[in-house]
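Holo model, flavin-adenine dinucleotide. Inputs:
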Amino acid sequence: MITRGPRQLLAEVQQPGLCIGCGSCVELCPYFRSHGGKTVMLHDCDLPEGRCHAWCPKTELDLEGLAQELWDAPYSAQGMGPHLAVVAAKAGPRLEAGSYQAGGTVSALVCAALEQGLVQGAILTGGRGLDTAPTLAQTPEEVTACAGSKFTAAPTLAALNQAQAQGCGPLAVVATPCQSAALAQRRAKPWPQRGAAGPAELVIGLFCNWSLDPQGLARFLAQRVELASIRSMDIPPPPAGVLQVETTDGSLEIPLDEIRDLIPPACAMCPDMTSEWADLSVGMYEGRPGWNTLVVRNEKARTLTEAAVEAGWLVVEEFPVANKEHLVHAAQGKRSRGLGAALAQGLLGVSGEDQPKALRVSPELYQAVESGEVA
Ligand SMILES: Cc1cc2nc3c(=O)[nH]c(=O)nc-3n(C[C@H](O)[C@H](O)[C@H](O)COP(=O)(O)OP(=O)(O)OC[C@H]3O[C@@H](n4cnc5c(N)ncnc54)[C@H](O)[C@@H]3O)c2cc1C
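Output:
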Protein backbone atom coordinates (compact mmCIF):
# COMPACT_ATOMS: atom_id res chain seq x y z
CA MET A 1 0.00 0.00 0.00
CA ILE A 2 1.30 3.44 -0.97
CA THR A 3 2.46 6.10 1.51
CA ARG A 4 3.86 9.52 0.77
CA GLY A 5 4.59 12.62 2.86
CA PRO A 6 2.85 15.76 4.16
CA ARG A 7 3.47 17.82 1.02
CA GLN A 8 1.67 15.17 -1.01
CA LEU A 9 -1.11 15.12 1.59
CA LEU A 10 -1.63 18.83 1.00
CA ALA A 11 -1.59 18.37 -2.78
CA GLU A 12 -3.86 15.30 -2.88
CA VAL A 13 -6.32 16.07 -0.07
CA GLN A 14 -6.22 19.63 1.25
CA GLN A 15 -5.85 21.60 -1.98
CA PRO A 16 -8.61 19.76 -3.93
CA GLY A 17 -10.94 20.27 -0.94
CA LEU A 18 -11.17 16.59 -0.01
CA CYS A 19 -10.13 16.94 3.65
CA ILE A 20 -13.04 15.97 5.92
CA GLY A 21 -11.33 17.26 9.08
CA CYS A 22 -11.39 13.87 10.87
CA GLY A 23 -8.28 14.78 12.87
CA SER A 24 -6.31 11.66 11.92
CA CYS A 25 -3.21 13.75 11.01
CA VAL A 26 -3.58 16.15 13.95
CA GLU A 27 -1.51 15.84 17.15
CA LEU A 28 0.94 13.43 15.50
CA CYS A 29 3.55 16.15 14.99
CA PRO A 30 3.78 19.92 15.61
CA TYR A 31 2.60 20.78 12.09
CA PHE A 32 -1.04 19.78 11.57
CA ARG A 33 -3.70 21.45 13.72
CA SER A 34 -7.49 21.51 13.77
CA HIS A 35 -9.17 24.91 13.74
CA GLY A 36 -12.84 25.74 13.29
CA GLY A 37 -13.57 22.28 11.88
CA LYS A 38 -10.73 22.53 9.34
CA THR A 39 -7.31 20.92 9.37
CA VAL A 40 -4.49 23.34 8.75
CA MET A 41 -0.74 22.88 8.28
CA LEU A 42 1.26 25.41 10.26
CA HIS A 43 4.73 24.81 8.78
CA ASP A 44 6.17 23.09 5.75
CA CYS A 45 7.52 19.57 6.30
CA ASP A 46 9.47 17.63 3.67
CA LEU A 47 9.32 14.13 5.18
CA PRO A 48 9.09 11.72 2.22
CA GLU A 49 6.70 9.41 4.13
CA GLY A 50 4.52 10.20 7.13
CA ARG A 51 1.70 8.85 9.26
CA CYS A 52 -0.30 11.92 8.25
CA HIS A 53 -0.44 10.58 4.68
CA ALA A 54 -0.49 6.86 5.52
CA TRP A 55 -3.52 7.12 7.81
CA CYS A 56 -5.57 9.70 5.91
CA PRO A 57 -8.93 8.24 4.82
CA LYS A 58 -9.08 10.47 1.75
CA THR A 59 -5.95 9.43 -0.11
CA GLU A 60 -4.66 5.99 -1.04
CA LEU A 61 -7.61 4.25 0.58
CA ASP A 62 -7.01 0.89 -1.06
CA LEU A 63 -10.31 -0.89 -0.46
CA GLU A 64 -9.10 -4.14 -1.97
CA GLY A 65 -5.76 -4.02 -0.10
CA LEU A 66 -7.48 -3.22 3.21
CA ALA A 67 -10.07 -5.98 2.77
CA GLN A 68 -7.38 -8.55 2.03
CA GLU A 69 -5.28 -7.36 4.96
CA LEU A 70 -8.01 -6.90 7.57
CA TRP A 71 -10.79 -9.25 6.47
CA ASP A 72 -8.78 -11.84 4.59
CA ALA A 73 -11.40 -11.53 1.86
CA PRO A 74 -11.93 -9.51 -1.32
CA TYR A 75 -13.71 -6.14 -1.17
CA SER A 76 -17.19 -6.59 -2.58
CA ALA A 77 -19.50 -4.16 -4.33
CA GLN A 78 -22.38 -6.11 -2.80
CA GLY A 79 -23.73 -6.07 0.73
CA MET A 80 -22.63 -3.92 3.67
CA GLY A 81 -19.31 -5.41 4.70
CA PRO A 82 -18.61 -8.53 6.76
CA HIS A 83 -20.93 -9.17 9.68
CA LEU A 84 -22.13 -11.98 11.93
CA ALA A 85 -25.55 -10.54 12.79
CA VAL A 86 -27.87 -7.56 12.47
CA VAL A 87 -30.18 -6.94 15.43
CA ALA A 88 -32.53 -4.27 16.76
CA ALA A 89 -31.03 -2.74 19.90
CA LYS A 90 -31.55 -0.07 22.53
CA ALA A 91 -30.05 0.83 25.88
CA GLY A 92 -31.01 -1.39 28.82
CA PRO A 93 -31.93 -0.33 32.37
CA ARG A 94 -28.29 0.21 33.46
CA LEU A 95 -27.85 3.28 31.20
CA GLU A 96 -28.80 6.54 32.91
CA ALA A 97 -31.38 8.75 31.18
CA GLY A 98 -29.74 11.15 28.70
CA SER A 99 -30.06 12.90 25.35
CA TYR A 100 -29.29 9.84 23.24
CA GLN A 101 -29.73 10.21 19.52
CA ALA A 102 -31.98 7.16 19.13
CA GLY A 103 -31.89 4.10 21.38
CA GLY A 104 -28.63 4.92 23.16
CA THR A 105 -27.07 1.72 21.82
CA VAL A 106 -23.70 3.38 21.15
CA SER A 107 -23.46 4.81 24.66
CA ALA A 108 -24.58 1.48 26.17
CA LEU A 109 -21.92 -0.46 24.24
CA VAL A 110 -19.21 2.00 25.31
CA CYS A 111 -20.25 1.65 28.97
CA ALA A 112 -20.19 -2.14 28.68
CA ALA A 113 -16.73 -2.10 27.05
CA LEU A 114 -15.41 0.08 29.90
CA GLU A 115 -16.98 -2.13 32.56
CA GLN A 116 -15.67 -5.30 30.92
CA GLY A 117 -12.14 -3.83 30.92
CA LEU A 118 -11.96 -4.30 27.15
CA VAL A 119 -10.90 -0.63 26.97
CA GLN A 120 -9.73 1.96 29.49
CA GLY A 121 -11.38 4.86 27.74
CA ALA A 122 -13.40 5.85 24.70
CA ILE A 123 -12.83 8.68 22.24
CA LEU A 124 -16.22 10.30 21.77
CA THR A 125 -17.50 13.46 20.13
CA GLY A 126 -19.18 15.62 22.71
CA GLY A 127 -20.22 19.23 22.33
CA ARG A 128 -23.49 21.08 22.10
CA GLY A 129 -25.22 22.83 19.25
CA LEU A 130 -22.66 23.52 16.54
CA ASP A 131 -19.65 22.76 18.74
CA THR A 132 -17.97 19.39 18.41
CA ALA A 133 -15.73 18.47 21.31
CA PRO A 134 -13.72 15.26 20.82
CA THR A 135 -13.25 13.83 24.30
CA LEU A 136 -11.73 10.93 26.20
CA ALA A 137 -14.55 9.39 28.28
CA GLN A 138 -13.76 6.93 31.06
CA THR A 139 -16.94 6.77 33.14
CA PRO A 140 -20.64 6.19 32.26
CA GLU A 141 -21.33 9.83 33.21
CA GLU A 142 -18.71 11.05 30.74
CA VAL A 143 -20.15 8.74 28.06
CA THR A 144 -23.69 10.05 28.60
CA ALA A 145 -22.42 13.64 28.43
CA CYS A 146 -21.28 12.98 24.82
CA ALA A 147 -24.57 11.42 23.64
CA GLY A 148 -26.35 12.61 20.51
CA SER A 149 -25.24 13.23 16.91
CA LYS A 150 -23.40 16.34 15.84
CA PHE A 151 -24.06 16.48 12.12
CA THR A 152 -20.87 18.33 11.25
CA ALA A 153 -17.57 16.60 10.50
CA ALA A 154 -15.48 16.44 13.67
CA PRO A 155 -11.73 16.08 14.45
CA THR A 156 -12.43 13.07 16.69
CA LEU A 157 -9.19 11.25 15.84
CA ALA A 158 -7.05 14.15 17.11
CA ALA A 159 -8.31 13.23 20.60
CA LEU A 160 -7.25 9.62 19.97
CA ASN A 161 -3.73 10.73 19.03
CA GLN A 162 -3.58 12.94 22.10
CA ALA A 163 -4.81 10.22 24.48
CA GLN A 164 -2.40 7.65 23.04
CA ALA A 165 0.50 10.10 23.34
CA GLN A 166 -0.43 10.50 27.02
CA GLY A 167 -0.20 6.75 27.50
CA CYS A 168 -3.93 5.96 27.70
CA GLY A 169 -4.98 2.67 26.32
CA PRO A 170 -6.44 0.42 25.09
CA LEU A 171 -9.13 2.72 23.68
CA ALA A 172 -12.46 2.54 21.88
CA VAL A 173 -13.45 5.10 19.24
CA VAL A 174 -16.98 5.97 18.13
CA ALA A 175 -16.42 6.84 14.50
CA THR A 176 -18.19 7.91 11.33
CA PRO A 177 -17.35 5.86 8.18
CA CYS A 178 -14.49 8.18 7.16
CA GLN A 179 -13.05 7.99 10.67
CA SER A 180 -13.49 4.19 10.64
CA ALA A 181 -11.59 4.11 7.33
CA ALA A 182 -8.78 6.18 8.87
CA LEU A 183 -8.60 3.65 11.71
CA ALA A 184 -8.48 0.80 9.19
CA GLN A 185 -5.53 2.53 7.50
CA ARG A 186 -3.75 2.47 10.89
CA ARG A 187 -4.32 -1.25 11.32
CA ALA A 188 -3.06 -2.00 7.83
CA LYS A 189 -0.10 0.43 8.01
CA PRO A 190 1.29 0.34 11.57
CA TRP A 191 4.04 2.83 12.43
CA PRO A 192 5.46 1.68 15.79
CA GLN A 193 8.81 3.48 15.36
CA ARG A 194 7.11 6.91 15.71
CA GLY A 195 5.45 6.72 19.12
CA ALA A 196 2.23 5.49 20.67
CA ALA A 197 -0.37 6.68 18.13
CA GLY A 198 -1.97 3.80 16.29
CA PRO A 199 -5.12 1.71 15.93
CA ALA A 200 -7.97 1.56 18.42
CA GLU A 201 -8.84 -1.57 20.37
CA LEU A 202 -12.54 -1.24 19.52
CA VAL A 203 -14.27 0.75 16.79
CA ILE A 204 -18.00 1.43 17.10
CA GLY A 205 -18.97 2.84 13.72
CA LEU A 206 -21.95 5.05 12.94
CA PHE A 207 -24.09 4.83 9.82
CA CYS A 208 -23.65 8.03 7.83
CA ASN A 209 -24.72 9.25 4.41
CA TRP A 210 -23.03 12.63 4.75
CA SER A 211 -22.02 15.27 7.24
CA LEU A 212 -22.13 19.06 6.97
CA ASP A 213 -19.32 21.58 6.71
CA PRO A 214 -19.06 23.17 10.19
CA GLN A 215 -18.24 26.71 9.04
CA GLY A 216 -20.81 26.66 6.23
CA LEU A 217 -23.52 25.39 8.57
CA ALA A 218 -22.70 28.06 11.16
CA ARG A 219 -22.99 30.81 8.52
CA PHE A 220 -26.27 29.33 7.23
CA LEU A 221 -27.90 28.92 10.65
CA ALA A 222 -26.70 32.33 11.89
CA GLN A 223 -29.19 33.88 9.46
CA ARG A 224 -32.09 32.07 11.18
CA VAL A 225 -31.29 31.48 14.84
CA GLU A 226 -29.05 32.66 17.64
CA LEU A 227 -26.22 30.13 17.33
CA ALA A 228 -25.69 29.98 21.10
CA SER A 229 -29.34 28.90 21.53
CA ILE A 230 -28.90 25.63 19.54
CA ARG A 231 -29.26 22.60 21.81
CA SER A 232 -29.35 19.65 19.40
CA MET A 233 -29.98 18.61 15.81
CA ASP A 234 -31.53 15.59 14.14
CA ILE A 235 -32.09 14.32 10.64
CA PRO A 236 -35.06 11.95 10.99
CA PRO A 237 -35.25 9.00 8.58
CA PRO A 238 -37.02 9.52 5.20
CA PRO A 239 -39.50 10.71 4.15
CA ALA A 240 -39.07 13.70 6.51
CA GLY A 241 -36.27 15.27 4.43
CA VAL A 242 -35.44 17.93 7.01
CA LEU A 243 -32.75 19.00 9.46
CA GLN A 244 -34.45 19.57 12.79
CA VAL A 245 -32.78 22.19 14.97
CA GLU A 246 -33.79 22.34 18.63
CA THR A 247 -33.07 25.68 20.26
CA THR A 248 -33.76 27.02 23.73
CA ASP A 249 -36.60 29.04 22.11
CA GLY A 250 -38.25 26.20 20.16
CA SER A 251 -37.55 24.11 17.09
CA LEU A 252 -36.90 24.77 13.44
CA GLU A 253 -37.13 22.49 10.39
CA ILE A 254 -34.87 23.13 7.42
CA PRO A 255 -35.52 21.22 4.17
CA LEU A 256 -32.44 19.15 3.31
CA ASP A 257 -32.49 20.63 -0.21
CA GLU A 258 -31.54 23.98 1.33
CA ILE A 259 -28.40 22.62 2.96
CA ARG A 260 -27.13 20.15 0.35
CA ASP A 261 -24.49 22.66 -0.76
CA LEU A 262 -23.00 22.41 2.73
CA ILE A 263 -22.10 18.74 2.28
CA PRO A 264 -18.30 18.59 1.86
CA PRO A 265 -17.12 17.24 -1.55
CA ALA A 266 -15.31 14.41 0.28
CA CYS A 267 -18.69 12.91 1.29
CA ALA A 268 -19.76 12.58 -2.35
CA MET A 269 -17.02 10.05 -3.09
CA CYS A 270 -17.37 8.09 0.16
CA PRO A 271 -18.37 4.49 -0.63
CA ASP A 272 -19.32 3.51 2.92
CA MET A 273 -22.69 4.06 4.60
CA THR A 274 -22.45 1.57 7.48
CA SER A 275 -18.85 1.99 8.75
CA GLU A 276 -17.81 -1.31 7.22
CA TRP A 277 -14.31 -1.23 8.76
CA ALA A 278 -15.64 -1.00 12.34
CA ASP A 279 -16.16 -3.86 14.83
CA LEU A 280 -19.80 -2.89 15.35
CA SER A 281 -21.92 -0.43 13.40
CA VAL A 282 -24.95 1.46 14.70
CA GLY A 283 -27.60 3.52 12.95
CA MET A 284 -31.21 4.55 13.18
CA TYR A 285 -33.98 1.97 12.97
CA GLU A 286 -36.31 3.38 10.35
CA GLY A 287 -39.93 3.26 11.51
CA ARG A 288 -39.05 2.40 15.13
CA PRO A 289 -38.09 5.51 17.10
CA GLY A 290 -36.13 4.84 20.28
CA TRP A 291 -34.37 1.85 18.74
CA ASN A 292 -31.20 1.34 16.71
CA THR A 293 -29.98 -0.99 14.03
CA LEU A 294 -26.88 -2.81 15.34
CA VAL A 295 -24.48 -4.64 13.00
CA VAL A 296 -22.22 -7.10 14.83
CA ARG A 297 -19.22 -7.62 12.56
CA ASN A 298 -16.78 -9.97 14.31
CA GLU A 299 -16.24 -12.22 17.33
CA LYS A 300 -14.97 -9.38 19.55
CA ALA A 301 -18.17 -7.49 18.77
CA ARG A 302 -20.33 -10.55 19.46
CA THR A 303 -18.68 -11.12 22.84
CA LEU A 304 -19.15 -7.45 23.78
CA THR A 305 -22.79 -7.42 22.66
CA GLU A 306 -23.60 -10.56 24.65
CA ALA A 307 -21.82 -9.18 27.73
CA ALA A 308 -23.67 -5.85 27.37
CA VAL A 309 -27.04 -7.66 27.27
CA GLU A 310 -26.09 -9.91 30.19
CA ALA A 311 -25.05 -6.91 32.32
CA GLY A 312 -28.22 -4.92 31.57
CA TRP A 313 -26.59 -2.23 29.42
CA LEU A 314 -28.29 -3.35 26.21
CA VAL A 315 -31.54 -4.91 24.99
CA VAL A 316 -31.62 -6.68 21.63
CA GLU A 317 -34.39 -8.09 19.45
CA GLU A 318 -34.64 -9.72 16.08
CA PHE A 319 -34.27 -7.41 13.07
CA PRO A 320 -36.84 -8.00 10.30
CA VAL A 321 -35.50 -9.47 7.03
CA ALA A 322 -37.22 -6.76 4.98
CA ASN A 323 -35.43 -4.03 6.97
CA LYS A 324 -32.10 -5.74 6.46
CA GLU A 325 -32.73 -5.91 2.71
CA HIS A 326 -33.53 -2.20 2.74
CA LEU A 327 -30.31 -1.47 4.65
CA VAL A 328 -28.20 -3.49 2.22
CA HIS A 329 -29.83 -1.69 -0.69
CA ALA A 330 -29.02 1.71 0.86
CA ALA A 331 -25.41 0.66 1.59
CA GLN A 332 -24.95 -0.54 -1.99
CA GLY A 333 -26.45 2.68 -3.29
CA LYS A 334 -23.96 4.83 -1.39
CA ARG A 335 -21.07 2.60 -2.48
CA SER A 336 -21.96 2.83 -6.15
CA ARG A 337 -22.50 6.60 -5.97
CA GLY A 338 -19.19 7.07 -4.13
CA LEU A 339 -17.14 4.91 -6.49
CA GLY A 340 -18.86 6.50 -9.50
CA ALA A 341 -18.07 10.00 -8.23
CA ALA A 342 -14.42 9.08 -7.60
CA LEU A 343 -14.16 7.63 -11.12
CA ALA A 344 -15.71 10.74 -12.67
CA GLN A 345 -13.15 12.95 -10.90
CA GLY A 346 -10.18 10.76 -11.91
CA LEU A 347 -9.69 9.78 -8.26
CA LEU A 348 -10.43 6.05 -8.56
CA GLY A 349 -7.49 3.74 -9.23
CA VAL A 350 -6.51 0.09 -9.22
CA SER A 351 -4.62 -1.52 -6.31
CA GLY A 352 -0.90 -1.71 -6.93
CA GLU A 353 -0.61 1.08 -9.50
CA ASP A 354 1.65 4.07 -8.81
CA GLN A 355 -0.17 7.30 -9.69
CA PRO A 356 -1.77 9.02 -6.63
CA LYS A 357 -5.44 8.11 -6.19
CA ALA A 358 -7.95 8.77 -3.44
CA LEU A 359 -9.56 5.32 -3.67
CA ARG A 360 -8.30 2.04 -5.07
CA VAL A 361 -10.20 -1.13 -5.93
CA SER A 362 -9.44 -4.42 -7.68
CA PRO A 363 -9.11 -4.34 -11.51
CA GLU A 364 -12.41 -6.26 -11.75
CA LEU A 365 -14.32 -3.79 -9.60
CA TYR A 366 -12.73 -0.83 -11.41
CA GLN A 367 -13.97 -2.27 -14.70
CA ALA A 368 -17.44 -2.85 -13.26
CA VAL A 369 -17.63 0.76 -12.04
CA GLU A 370 -16.36 2.05 -15.40
CA SER A 371 -18.89 0.03 -17.37
CA GLY A 372 -21.76 1.10 -15.09
CA GLU A 373 -22.35 -2.43 -13.75
CA VAL A 374 -22.00 -1.19 -10.16
CA ALA A 375 -25.09 0.93 -9.87
C1 LIG B 1 -22.64 13.04 10.77
C2 LIG B 1 -23.59 11.89 11.09
C3 LIG B 1 -24.44 11.41 10.10
C4 LIG B 1 -25.29 10.33 10.35
N1 LIG B 1 -26.10 9.84 9.36
C5 LIG B 1 -26.88 8.76 9.59
C6 LIG B 1 -27.68 8.19 8.57
O1 LIG B 1 -27.67 8.67 7.42
N2 LIG B 1 -28.43 7.10 8.85
C7 LIG B 1 -28.44 6.54 10.12
O2 LIG B 1 -29.13 5.53 10.34
N3 LIG B 1 -27.69 7.04 11.12
C8 LIG B 1 -26.91 8.13 10.89
N4 LIG B 1 -26.12 8.64 11.88
C9 LIG B 1 -26.06 7.91 13.18
C10 LIG B 1 -27.18 8.28 14.12
O3 LIG B 1 -27.39 9.68 14.10
C11 LIG B 1 -26.83 7.85 15.55
O4 LIG B 1 -25.52 8.27 15.89
C12 LIG B 1 -26.84 6.35 15.73
O5 LIG B 1 -28.09 5.85 15.35
C13 LIG B 1 -26.55 5.95 17.17
O6 LIG B 1 -27.60 6.35 17.99
P1 LIG B 1 -27.49 6.15 19.57
O7 LIG B 1 -28.74 6.59 20.22
O8 LIG B 1 -26.99 4.76 19.84
O9 LIG B 1 -26.29 7.18 19.89
P2 LIG B 1 -25.80 7.84 21.28
O10 LIG B 1 -25.81 6.80 22.35
O11 LIG B 1 -26.55 9.09 21.49
O12 LIG B 1 -24.29 8.11 20.94
C14 LIG B 1 -23.94 8.90 19.85
C15 LIG B 1 -22.43 8.89 19.68
O13 LIG B 1 -22.11 9.51 18.44
C16 LIG B 1 -20.87 10.14 18.57
N5 LIG B 1 -20.88 11.28 17.64
C17 LIG B 1 -21.76 12.30 17.61
N6 LIG B 1 -21.47 13.14 16.61
C18 LIG B 1 -20.37 12.66 16.00
C19 LIG B 1 -19.59 13.12 14.90
N7 LIG B 1 -19.88 14.23 14.21
N8 LIG B 1 -18.52 12.37 14.55
C20 LIG B 1 -18.19 11.24 15.24
N9 LIG B 1 -18.92 10.76 16.28
C21 LIG B 1 -20.00 11.47 16.65
C22 LIG B 1 -20.75 10.56 20.02
O14 LIG B 1 -19.43 10.33 20.43
C23 LIG B 1 -21.70 9.63 20.76
O15 LIG B 1 -20.95 8.71 21.52
C24 LIG B 1 -25.29 9.73 11.66
C25 LIG B 1 -24.44 10.23 12.67
C26 LIG B 1 -23.59 11.30 12.40
C27 LIG B 1 -22.66 11.82 13.49
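The mean pLDDT is 95. The chain has three domains: 6-76+335-370, 85-211+264-332, 214-260.
Archived with the compound record.
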